[in-house]
Amino acid sequence: MNVENEYMELLKSWCDGLIGLQFKEENNPRLDGGIFCPSCMMIHGRCHDAIYPMMVLADRFNEEKYLTAAKRLFQWSENLLCDDGSYYNDAQNDWAGITVFSVIALTHALEFHASLLSEQEKELWEARLYRTAEWVFQTITPQFDVNINYHAACAEAMALTGTYFQREKYLRRSDEMADFCMRYISEEGLFFGEGKPRDDVSPKGCRPVDIGYNVEESLASLLAYGTIRKNELVHAEVKRMLWAHLEFMNPDGGWDNTVGTRNYKWSYWGSRTSDGCQLAYGLLGDEEPIFSEASYRNIQLYKQCTHDGLLYGGTDYYAHGELPCVHHTFCKAKALALLLDSGAVNVTPSELPSEHLVPIKYWPVIDTYRMARGGFIATVTAYDIEYKPGGHASGGTMTMLWHRNVGMIMASSTVEYALIEPTNGQLSLKKSGHRPMTMRLETCGGPYLSSAYDYRAVFKHDAAMSGMAVCLEASGHLTDRLQKAVSSGRDGAYRFCYRMEESGVMIRAVVEECAEMVRWVIPLVGKHEGGLECLTGKNRFRICGECGHVILELDREPEEVNPIFFLNGGFEGWEVVLCMEKGEAGRCWIRVET
Prior knowledge:
By secondary structure, the chain is an alpha+beta fold. The chain is 30% helix and 21% strand. The longest helix has 21 residues, at 119-139.
């Protein structure tokens, strides 16, 4: 199936949306050529990466507006170009590591589309590229103390510029960085190093893993390196890792990054500021047909989240009235541009690994179980790597529940919302309903304690089959965001018991020891427009969807039912709250009607 026109149409829509926000202020070089972001009300420093997709369209359609936009972006980028050859991330953010991504984008623009430039313009662009590539060479080494994605990107950038400029020292550095990255592969095939420190090993032996950054950036860069340098060992290892990571793609093309170390940037289609899984899966589609299908399904999510030429940060952002951040659009546009330039536009219809998951699989490197039964897929985690306090949920929490007929049902991300990277996040004006989508037990008064904070929680035994059901149990203690339990009789011991059957999922929460009332918060994904309907009694609810309904049945009447939305993940939902006392158990059943 050739999808070139479909990809081109989406890329054109995105670039037209960006051009509509590009400043045309010839008398003000600080603004002229920059792209205004509606949600962040600023010009993102990395917007000049859109030079490459603009050049692709200028070449394909011979339309002056795209070439003009690219040239004006190049000129505007001088506003953030430092005397050492690096770019600032933003005018108020001195992080310069992102220079490596600008080097990659500008190299692609020149290697594929330099014919659009005059000789003088080409020399100017190449001089800039050489200057920034030299900064990358001098700065990003194995000793550079950053997340592993920068080392992987350096391997690609040095391979590209080493080939373009025929600089042997760049090529040697690319080999060095790729060899360095090969040390960061877990036994299961997950790439790790997205942590502070990068080499962190938790008390449980876990490593810092972020599915979003891996599939949308690091593995793509290592694949590009392996292709350019004809390194068959790296190529084979990347392919193995791509197969392992693909188990975290749901059948609708969304990524389960609910336990990722950097899921403060998670949106269901990927990660907010990385380029897209197409750079790995799409470009390997000829070798592995399923990869082309994965790339294509993910692009369908992009299309679903695109409105007026801009990619919104999640499936429900637009409906909820949240504005789009242009960072998503100009980053993902680069991936589509390279697919088109590389001719990777054929899709072989295939079934994804997540459509044939085994009932139980354990991932030791992230202390996480994946369970599948009767159309349901669930993720349950006690992962204990901390990127920032209040980050990904732990404590034996079911962070994701998905069903083939209704899509996402539970979608945890961070336990708290915080602008970890202030210029790479956004805020909601609808503060009253902006709340985490993490299922949790929490205290009602006094110091705030939560089950989702507990990195010391343990699985009581391995997940197992009981008849036709998959069963799993976890136990822990209510703790604060700094992993401290409060004494004076507030032991806060709890248990979660999960049972997944063909017909539905049962969750049992037990408060074993606590001095006061505990709230059990159960957030379920569901569009507000469809509504939540109370069925017979006051403990059964229906959340209406387009292709089916989610039925929630409780063992008691809830104290509260509130419409909520969370920017991380990007889902609208309903927060159902039960109150429980010491020694009390609560139950809920989740089923799907079609």
